[in-house]
Every structure is written in C-alpha cells, then in structure tokens.
Amino acid sequence: MSYDVDHSTSGTVFEYNVSHDNEGGFFLLCPYDKPTTNFTIRYNLSVNDKTRIFQICDGALTGGKIYKNTIQIGSGISPVIVTETTTAALDVLFADNIIRKEGSGRATWNLEDEYFSVVKNSFYGPIDTYSNASGSVTEAPGLAAPGLRDPKSYYLLAGSPTLDVAIDIVGDASIDFFNNPTTGHKNLGFYSGAGTNTPTWISKFDNSDISAWNSSSGSATILPDPAGDLGNSVQLAPSTVFSRPIGASLPFRLNARIWIDAVSTSKPVSIRVGSTSNAVDVVLGDPEIYRTGEWQILEVLLTSSGHSATLGGTALTAVPAADKTGLVTFSAGLSKVYIDDIFVTGQ
C-alpha cells in the first residue's frame, strides 16, 4: 500500500506516520487535470518501502513541501527516490530529509523538473547523485539502529552531522514525531531531539545468529518474519524461555517487537528485564492490551529509582522482581511468540 494525494486537493498535511515494506513504495502524488496545491509531507518514517519513494503522476504540483522525513532503504531494494511522468511544473520544496541506503541495490532518481527544489538533505549509501541538489550531507547520518522498524531506532546519535543543521521551513509543525518541540533542535529527518547514545547491543536475527541468547524449556527457531516483511525473526515455541545478559548499567531502555499468536490468560507471555540491582516483570495477560497476530513494540525503561513499560504505546504494569541476574528473559507461556528488533540503550 502507498499513501497518496490525488487530483485537485489543496492544503493536505501528511505527518507522523510509519510506513514499511510496501511493494508500491511510500507516497503517490497524482494531480492529473488540476494542480495539487499547498500540500505538506513531513515527520514521517519510511523503512524498506520498495519500487519508488515518491511518485508524481501527470499534472502540476504547486506550493508543495516534503521535509523532515526519515527514509531507510534496506539491502536488495532499488527504489526511485522521486519519479515523475509529467511535463507540468512541479513547485515542490524537498528539504531536511534523511535518506539512507544500505547493502545491495541502488536508489536512483527520475526527476527533471527545474522547479522541484532539493535542498539540505542527507544522502548516504549507494544513492545516485541528483545534479540539482544543493547543500547535501553525505556523511553517515548517525541513525541509532537503522534497519529496524521501531521508530526509536531512528533517533540521531550524539555528534551526528544531521543534528542542528536543518534549514527553516515556513509553517513548520510545533512538534516532531516523538512530541519533541521542533524548536529544540533543528535536525534533519523526523527526530528533533538531542543526540542519543549508541545502543549497547542489537539483536536483529537476520543473520540467523542467536549465539548470545540462551534457550531453555522449549525451542527457539529462526524463521522468516511472520508478517512477510524482509528478514528473519526468532520464534519461541510454547513454554520456551529465551534470555541474554542486558550488559548495561542503570538507567537503560529495552525495545523489542513482539508477535503473539494466541491469548493465554492462564499462562501468559512474560518478560523480565533487569540489572544486578533492579528488575521488573511485565506480564502480557490482558487481551485488551495486546493484539494477537501482529507486531507490537514493547518498551521497558529501568532506572535506579523507577521503571515504566508500554506495549504498542499503551502503558503496562511492571512488577518489581527479586531475581536480579541482569538478564532480559522472554517466557512464551502457552503461546507461540515471535520476537525481533531488540535493542538496549543506556539513558
């Protein structure tokens, strides 16, 4: 599925969205017989969208702004960043975006319109140079954990060349994707906060390596992503306990994507997160909170004085645990569970 703005619409604002693994690409602009005017596409995240990132059909665009989006293009994907099939004028500002391409394949351009202004964007990896671009940043953009599908893995690392270098855009939003004030840091991309720490470790499972993990009371198997996205995930059979050392001192944040096949209230899925001085249990026993058969993001923040946990943005109850072995432990209970995109970041 691609998002789109069609025909003679005016004043459309598309912001604060996450798009990933779409065959057709990220965004479609099709004015056709009458110009599309005064549209804005900002503060969005696109991960591994294919074919084309922005497609412009026949017709004119007037007063368009595409800015402060973060676009990650994975290995094996070769999209066109902007492709247009029109001789009409394209009055569009394309600015302050981050576009990062990794691995095999190449990102290209099919853009000839002289009014389409490409200014102060970050382009990194195998991406064709657009001859009319100006002020481009070509060093590594400093994304915290690129390639994952958790928006927080696209925070900007401290010292990144994309921090505090954005141009001013008239009519900018007051907050970014994460509710940070956009006046705090004038960054490229969809994150306007301060530079963050490098993750202590990341488990992506695409390389089929689970050697850092211990599996007991069941089986842990590397399988293709159950949603059909790129890459692999680890599947925990019912009753499996899957753990590894946290390797970080307080405070730290653990992020993970989790997919549960069925609700079990008698022996639910649980996650223990802890250091050697503080630990909590998060139990996914409320079917009103977690949704089966789809990915949700689990986040646990642990400090010396407190803790918090969310699943899919909904607050969870985290119960202090006496076992302070410094591990993260996923217990499948009576469910079949997939986990992926796990990372720990010191705060």
What labels would you give this structure?
347 residues, mainly beta, eight-stranded antiparallel β-sheet, six-stranded parallel β-sheet, 30 strands
Short description:
By secondary structure, the chain is an all-beta fold.
How would you describe what is shown here?
With 347 residues, the chain is mainly beta. The chain has strands at 3-6, 13-15, 18-20, 27-30, 36-37, 40-42, 45-47, 52-56, 61-67, 70-73, 80-84, 90-95, 98-101, 108-110, 116-119, 122-124, 201-203, 214-216, 220-224, 232-236, 241-245, 252-260, 269-274, 279-284, 296-302, 307-311, 314-316, 318-320, 327-331, 337-346. The radius of gyration is 22 Å and the shape is elongated. The protein starts with a strand and ends with a strand.
If you compute it from the alpha carbons, what radius of gyration comes out, rounded to the nearest whole angstrom? 22 Å
Termini separation comes to 36 Å
Alpha plus pi helix count: 0
What profile does the largest beta sheet have?
8 strands, antiparallel
Strand content: 35-45%
Structural class: mainly beta
Identify low-pLDDT runs: none
Nearest-integer average pLDDT: 94
Helix content: under 10%
The ordered string of helix (H) and strand (E) elements is EEEEEEEEEEEEEEEEEEEEEEEEEEEEEE
| Number of DSSP E strands | 30
Judging from the principal axes of the Cα atoms, what is the shape?
elongated
